[in-house]
Amino acid sequence: MSEALAPPHAVRILHGDLWRGGRLVLRSDELEIPLPSIVGLIGANGAGKSTLLHSLANVLGPSATVRVTIDEQVVHSAALVTQSPELPHWLTLDEILDLANCGETATSMIDDLEIGSLRNRRAATFSAGQRQLVGLVLGLSSGEALTLLDEPLAHLDMRARSRVSHWIKEVSRAGRETITFISSHSPAELIDLCDWIVAIRRAEYSFSGPKSALLPLNGQDGVRSRLRRRMLELV
Fold it and tell me: Does the pTM exceed 0.85?
């Protein structure tokens, strides 16, 4: 994808062809995104959203050639939270937090998300929604500059979605050199959370730019409706 002049403070992602299950899902390309940003990643089922996130987290093996830099400094690690986080099932929440060396942000999130009752329970007893909340606590409190959230609100009720959205914004915008990627099938979620949109269609990036660039200069319907319609057109 051709880019305009590079932002003065930015993350640059350069990758080769990305394959999953013997199928090419995303052709070689690069992205340049200003910092700090919350990036909404959109695309149809199988478009390559999860493949890109897993590649950025370096968990797809040698076939996924990816280079991520922040202000020309190479990023060697990232926090990846999948839809079904894998937790050590024999450990309690407190033991998991100790193992991950979590700090005050994790404690505040646990209190706010009302999952303190899990502290002395083993992860094997957590529901799908509870596992997702714990995974989000671990990812958002990791201190990594690059945070990757794959469908982070998928298993959550309305209240939990609202509180998690708050924490995504709070943590992601707390540092000058942070970027958070969020994949979702819901334009409404990304409209509320993100300031930058990356769209994937037919194994290519069909758009990468600020959310405001998707708004037409005029129109009779509301801003949210126009944004939702434009985002759906991109995939």
Answer: yes
